[in-house]
Amino acid sequence: MEFLHAFLQRHLKAAWRRRWIGVAAAWAVCLAGWTLVAMMPNQYQAESRLYVASDAILTPLLAGIAVNTSPQGRLDVLQRTLLSRPNMEELISKTDLDLRVTGPDSRDAMVRGLQSSIMLGQQGDNLFTIAYRSTSPRMAQQVVQTLLSIFIEKATGSSHRDMENARRFLEHQLASYEQQLRTAERRRAEFRNKYLGVFTPEGTGASMALDTLHAKIVTLQTHLQDLQLEAKALGQELAGTKPMLVAEDLAGGPGGLSPLAQAEERLRMMQLQYTDDYPGVIALKKQIAAMKSGALSPGGAPAAGGGAGKAKADLKAGTRSVPNPVYDQIKVKLVLVNGQISAAERQLAQAQGFVKRLETLQQQEPNLVADYENMNRTYTVLRGDYNELMSRLQSANIAEAADTQADKVQIRVVDPPVLPRLPVAPNRLLLVSGVMLVGLGVAVALPLLLAQLDRSFCVVDDLRSLGLPVLGGISMVGVRPLHMRLRVVLPVGLALFLLIAMYGGLVIRILHTASVI
Fold first, then answer.
1. Cβ-Cβ contacts under 8 Å for 385 (sequence gap 6 or more)
2. pLDDT at 304
3. Were both Cys, which of 137, 156, 176, 333 would link to 44 (CB 3.0–4.6 Å)?
4. How many other CB atoms are there within 10 angstroms of residue 177's CB atom?
5. Can you tell me the distance from the alpha carbon of 89 to that of 109, in angstroms, rounded to the nearest whole number?
6. Distance (Å, rounded) from C-alpha 300 to C-alpha 244?
């Protein structure tokens, strides 16, 4: 402990003898450092915040209907390319920075300087910041404002240009495909007209048409056989049915109804089952009209002629003859079945003729089917491509309308750039304080360093360490008076006080300039 105390005492005494060197070094360091700090130019920063987002409702609604323009992906690309060289050159040309360009080298240096000094940041998912520092506050604001304009222009204009280019390309392709499609349709129409009946309008070839026709012939033959059997059964039933029925006289008739009343009753019953166009209904109406006009006797026979004697004989015998409705129904149904048989025979003959013609064409012109199938395949491909292009064009039109009319991408300037009043750099208070601390450190460190380099002897022990005999030393010459000690200490303290006072003045000036006090 005594050794340490002696060591410190020795070095402090040596440093105190060189106190004015330390004070002078402190003043030199502080004055030089504060001068450099004062010469540093002020840096002003302009900043702006942007809110950029895609429409959260419109984008899902257009999914699958319109082309997905991926607004978020496009914005990410814009953020990464905002500091590209073309954008920086556009920024230089739109601001006063163009006046500082003296040549290609200075332009390149300015572009690199802008790319390194412009600060892009992100706060959250949709909030972005753009900041720039310059020695001129107006230049800082102008650069940030121009960058905002470039960003908004790229965000709103690039999509529109891309959509416009895509739409023009689709329209050009559609016009080309439409012309090819019309040519293919005209060739198919001419081919079908030349070989009418061979190829169907739906585009089926001869092989498929033959299969279809063979199946149709089998169906027609089966149907024709069924109709012929039905006609035969109806003919047999018609042969066994009487055309006329013998009824009782008016006096002995059931219910006491006259023949005219019975005919009208039958007409009402038939109208409940059939329409007025049914042959039996038409015949019964004619019969009733004849009975009312007197052209037909109540028994159903003509009022005059050869049937008069039979009618009189029937009346004498107390009987009368009326048409059998069952007979009429069977007869009409037989006529209808015979008509269906004729139609089925014509269809069968036509189908057989088509089959024969197809087989003949396949034998005589074997490449005809291949030509038609190739033509039809080309038409199908063209038609599919045309429909797909038309669908893509409609999607592009909807997407373009969403981008230009519905604000699919929302860009709002939250904080516009304002003209900065106070500098943000350099931090003069911190720098001045640092210079002060360095000066004080030099004031202490330099005398101690010089003391280490001093070759003189401060105490008797230094002499004894050399191995020389030492008779003794004068430990105390005398105690100096207080005023003499103050005369030694006060100048050093006053010099340091003035240095600290100058530092305090600089701090007050810096705080006043920054509007803190």
1. 177
2. 44
3. 137
4. 18
5. 12
6. 9
How is residue 294 written in tokens? 């007197």
Read off φ and ψ for residue 275, nearest 5 degrees. -85, 175
- Residue in the block written with tokens 């293919």: 184
62: number of CA atoms within 13 Å, CB side?
24
pLDDT digits (tens, 9 = 90+) for 235-278: 888 887 777 765 543 334 444 456 677 777 778 777 777 778 77
How much is the pLDDT for 379?
A: 86
DSSP 259-311: HHHHHHHHHHHHHHHS-TTSHHHHHHHHHHHHHHHTSB-TTSSBSSSTHHHHH
47 backbone dihedrals φ, ψ, rounded to 5°: -140, 150
The sign of the CA dihedral 500, 504, 506, 507 is positive
As given in the structure block, the two tokens for residue 284 are: 């019964």
Domain boundaries, the chain: 10-40+426-513, 218-351
- Phi-psi group of 197: left, alpha or beta (phi > 0 → left; psi -120 to 50 → alpha; rest → beta): left
**Three-point CA angle 317, 297, 304, nearest 5°:** 100
Please tell me the pTM assigned to this model: 0.47
DSSP 8-state class, residue 40:
S
DSSP state of 84: S
DSSP secondary structure string for all residues of 241-263: S-SEEEEE-TTTSGGG--HHHHH
What single-letter amino acid sits at 424? V
Distance CA 77, CA 71 (A): 10
- C-alpha torsion angle, residues 343, 345, 350, 354 (rounded to 10): 140
SS (HEC) of 42-83: CEEEEEEEEEEEECCCHHHHCCCCCCCCCHHHHHHHHHHHCC
Strands ordered across the beta sheet of 127-134? 119-123, 127-134, 44-54, 409-415
Rounded distance, CA 255 to CA 478, Å? Answer: 177
Tell me, what DSSP letter sits at residue 478? -
Closest CA to 291 of 320, 326, 259: 259
Q: Are 78 and 103 in contact (CB under 8 A)?
A: no
Contacts of 16 (CB under 8 A, 6+ apart): 447
Question: How large is the average pLDDT for residues 21-25?
Answer: 92
Region of 465 on the Ramachandran plot (φ > 0 left; ψ -120 to 50 alpha; else beta)? alpha
